Amino acid sequence: MGNCQQCIIKEISNLKSLSSLELKRISEYKGEVFFKKGDVIFKEGYLLNGVYCVKKGKCKLTKLSPNGKEQIVKFIKDGDMLGYRSVLGDEPLSLSAVALEDMSACFIPKQNILEVLRQNKNFSKDLFKVVCHDLKEANASIASIAQKTVRERLAETILFLNETFGEDGDGCIDLVLSRVELSSVVGTATESAIRLLSELSKDQVISLIGRRIKIKDAAALRRIGSGF
What are the residue ranges in the chain where pLDDT is below 50? Predict the structure, then answer.
């Protein structure tokens, strides 16, 4: 099992605020876990006894609607933490997490996280900032669904995914989503997402390589996302 003090992920996660002694103590109690693509990391409604710090891989956070439809509300990547809102609020999980590719993460028990929060003001402040940022993103998402057309939301989503995950060796967005998953992010029917992707491809704004998406004209995407 790796040592938190030597893990490069600590430099891009909330753990960067911890002292060497605090990292050492966390290392003594954490457990390294692995997930295959498609594995459910946790399910909404359950109680979580700790948080996950993602070392490598990507997953999606989803909400199940009353009619059983899955809505993707957030993506998680290297360095992000999972489950902290449930732990901080001492309440059941409001979202489910599913691996989008093979993942490795460290599970840190609840009591250890709460202990560090009580002792380290900088760590508490950083985690508070993350919670505020999540709330800001949620508000922006609600406003986008209410005010923007599906075409505009799709353009915004493609730009967001490219900015968040970067590009692979072929210049495509380094995250492969099914058309069902992409439509869930945008908040539309799968058929509408497929049709609009084809239109953007025909207009030379993007290229479609299987399920992968490559941006060809970022400026045009930004104009579309802004309603122009």
Answer: 8-10, 12
pTM value is: 0.82
Sequence letter at residue 65: S
Sign of the four-CA dihedral 65, 70, 71, 75: positive
Q: Are 53 and 83 in contact (CB under 8 A)?
A: no
Q: What is the pLDDT of residue 3?
A: 59
Count H helices and E strands in the chain, helices first.
8, 10
Question: What is the pLDDT at residue 12?
Answer: 45
Q: How far apart are CA 187 and CA 8, in angstroms?
A: 35
Give the pLDDT confidence score for residue 184 in this predicted structure.
92
pLDDT of residue 178: 94
49: left (phi over 0), alpha (psi -120 to 50) or beta: alpha
Helical H runs in 106-167? 110-119, 121-147, 150-165
Beta strand pairing call for 50-56 and 81-82: antiparallel
Exposed e or buried b per residue across 74-86, where buried means at least 16 C-beta atoms within 10 angstroms of its C-beta:
bbbbbbbbbbbbb
In the sheet with 70-76, reading across from the earlier edge strand, the strands are: 40-42, 96-99, 59-64, 70-76
Tokens at 129, concatenated: 């900032």
